Amino acid sequence: MDPSPFPRLTGSADVSVRPARPEDAGDIARVQAVAWRTAYRSLLPVELLDTWDEDAAARTWRAAVEAAPTPAHRVLVALEGNTVVGFTAVGPAELTDGEVADPAAPTSDISTLLVEPRWGRRGHGSRLLAAVVDVARSQGVLRLRTWLPDSDEVSASFYESAGWEPDGWARTLDTGDEPLRELRWHTLLDGDEGDPA
């Protein structure tokens, strides 16, 4: 992947964000497992969390980095020192049933943005979100979206503090346990105004 559209992906010597590399796949899977088991234990089925196959997840993330479905799909990692402490994945928006694409507002979806809980509250989530904004703008994207569990007040507060808001769409996922209701959040990238960074 060409890392050129990442003007803000620098940082201090201790913290930074950069495009993911294939060798990061194991760390990405670890962060995902720890974050889900810690922050989402009450939202996701216990069986899913307890039988999580970290090796399979690592293979999936390696494939996402090495052979992205489109050039617009990106995986970014947050670093503290040389340690991967968080990651995000972004790509072209997928239409929800009944939704019509707006050609005047190219849109991308953040499919996940996670920081390992022990590295939380150090700005890694904000740096990842700012990097996504830079990537989106470099691709001509005018709107970003993400789905959040309805009961995930921590993530909702994070996105709200960055200028995001629910856009009125909701969905219910069959998790094999209790249904998981999610709300879609969005922000417009309109110059510096509305910049969630």
Automatic annotation (TrEMBL):
CDD domains in the record: NAT_SF
Family annotation (PANTHER family): AMINOALKYLPHOSPHONATE N-ACETYLTRANSFERASE-RELATED-RELATED (PTHR43877)
Q: Does the keyword Hydrolase apply?
A: no
The record's listing under Gene3D superfamilies reads: 3.40.630.30
Q: Which UniProt keywords apply?
A: Acyltransferase, Transferase
* Species this protein is from: Blastococcus goldschmidtiae
Protein name in the entry = GNAT family N-acetyltransferase
Region of interest (Disordered), ranges: 1-21
What InterPro entries does the record point to?
Acyl_CoA_acyltransferase (IPR016181), Bact_Acetyltransf (IPR050832), GNAT_dom (IPR000182)
Keyword NAD present in the record's keywords: the answer is no
Task: Name all N-acetyltransferase domain ranges.
Answer: 15-190
